[in-house]
Design a protein that fits this description.
This protein is an alpha/beta fold. The chain is built from 3 helices and 4 strands; from the N terminus they run ββαβαβα.
Length: about 100
């Protein structure tokens, strides 16, 4: 199960925080939530602190959405490793030291 919550980021824009596994049916649920926000705002941040696993379809969705302006933040070390293996780590926001902020 994937829990999706709307939060406000530091710039006052709506961001999304997700918790659980991004795989299977949950991928479609995230796409339905992210698509309209990304279209409306032109950019969107997805907080991955509560994500335990990302399956192949979830990685493909993140790649597609990141190419349209989605930014990722606070992945766990495990999730960052998965993203790095699929070239998605370049979309992870970094802290002042240039390192990905881990959850």
């Amino acid at each position: 199960m994937l829990r999706i919550s709307k939060i406000e980021d530091h710039s006052g824009q709506t961001a999304l925080q997700i918790e659980g596994d991004l795989a299977g049916e949950e991928v479609g649920a995230l796409a339905e939530e992210v698509g309209p926000l990304l279209d409306r705002q032109g950019a969107l941040t997805l907080d991955l602190a509560g994500v335990r696993f990302i399956g192949p379809s979830g990685l493909l969705l993140l790649r597609r959405l990141c190419q349209c302006g989605l930014r990722l933040r606070r992945p766990s070390r495990f999730v960052l490793l998965l993203m790095r293996q699929h070239g998605l780590d370049r979309y992870v926001e970094t802290n002042e030291a240039g390192k990905a902020g881990f959850a």
